[in-house]
Amino acid sequence: MTPGDYLSAALLIMGSLFFLAGTIGLLRFPDVYTRLHALTKADNVGLGLIVAALAIQASSWAGVVKLVLIWLLVLLAGSSVSHLVSRSALHRGVDVWKG
Amino acid sequence: MQHLYLLLAVFLLLNLGAGMWRVLRGPTAADRMLAAQLFGTTAVAVLLLLAELENSVALRDVALVFALLAAVTAIAFVRRAWAGTEDSNDTR
Amino acid sequence: MNKARQEIDWWTVLSRAMLFSIIWWALTDGADGSWLIGGPVVLCALVASVALRPKEGIVWRELLFFVPFFLWHSLIGGVDVARRAFHPRMPIAPELVEYPLQLPPGLPQVTLVNIMSLLPGTLGVELEGQMLKIHLLDGRGDYLSGLKRLERRVGRIWVESADDFSRG
């Protein structure tokens, strides 16, 4: 394994742990708003780290740009969806959990 | 590296499975909509790992299409799932 | 709609042509033969994007400065929420607050709402005129200063090309 491989492996494992954090938050957090916090932020960081790890392994610059493009699209989808879902929930009178 | 890709792809799939529990259980419709979000991000990550494992450009393109569709499907899903009573101030 | 009659500045056209070319190049993994199709596609995208351009313009220099800021703070956002999720006592104190916006409506406000959901502790819930409802993961901390800073930064990225843009 090259030094690049070790860095990639570390990033991949960290990224996966963020996905785990997102899922734990999804299961543990008390209402839909807090679950959205967990899912949106943790999963996007997780995917970002995985994309970074794969970019190190990429054989061409075009491949790197494509990876970044994929990440940006998921970011856009994630933040838009979390806004839409929370807005709909508020309109439908889903209460905000307070301590 | 190949083992790691496979291991993490499986790990992420298990993650997705665990997250499905919340989606199935709800309790509100909004909680079920989290599925769109969960699937979008996790599926893209799994596909990218598999693309690297198989050294396949095609699979990476599948991930790209998934990322593109994630936005569209999720928005359609949110609108459909709340269809009916809601959103007086939506532009129709 | 006399704004659509504005002069098209060539820097905008050139930078967009470059952006679309880079995207095409990445999508096709740099295959040379693909430009036979890619050329016309980039041209179509360019025409469409200039015809449909919003009244706000991007300040590329500010966007460039924004990237590291965004990467760092979204990483903090992920670490913060992960820590709370893993923590045995789950330290959260959610709150729904209203935040009066300084940003003009349209793309600047939408950008702010989208970005804030990826940064630590804030979730943009609803936009009503100049009032934004924000869900906070922990209302005990100081979220206002961070929000104001983010709002200022977003305001610098988008400038209205019309002359009525008086905010600094």
Provide a descriptive summary of the structure in words.
- The complex is a heterotrimer of chains A (99), B (92) and C (168).
- Helix content of chain A is 84%, strand content 0%.
- Chain A is mainly α.
- Chain B is mostly helical and 92 residues long.
- Helix content of chain B is 82%, strand content 0%.
- Chain B is flat.
- Chain B starts with a helix and ends in an 11-residue tail after the last helix.
- Residues 84-92 of chain B have low confidence and may be disordered.
- With 168 residues, chain C is an alpha+beta fold.
- Chain C has two domains: 8-53, no CATH class; 59-160, no CATH class.
- Chain C is 51% helix and 15% strand.
- Chain C has helices spanning 10-27, 35-51, 60-86, 107-116, 144-157, and strands spanning 56-58, 95-100, 122-128, 131-136, 158-160.
- In chain C, helix 1 (10-27) crosses helix 2 and helix 4 packs across helix 5.
- Chain C is globular, with a radius of gyration of 20 Å.
- Chain A binds chain B through residues 1, 5, 8-9, 12-13, 15-16, 19-20, 22-23, 26-27, 32, 35-36, 39-40, 43-44, 46-47, 50-51, 54, 57, 63, 66-67, 69-70, 73-74, 76-78, 80-82, 84-86, 88-89, 91-92, 94, and chain B through 1, 4-5, 8, 11-12, 15-16, 18-19, 21-22, 28-31, 33-34, 36-38, 40-42, 44-45, 48-49, 52, 60, 63-64, 67-68, 70-71, 74-75, 78, 82, 86-87.
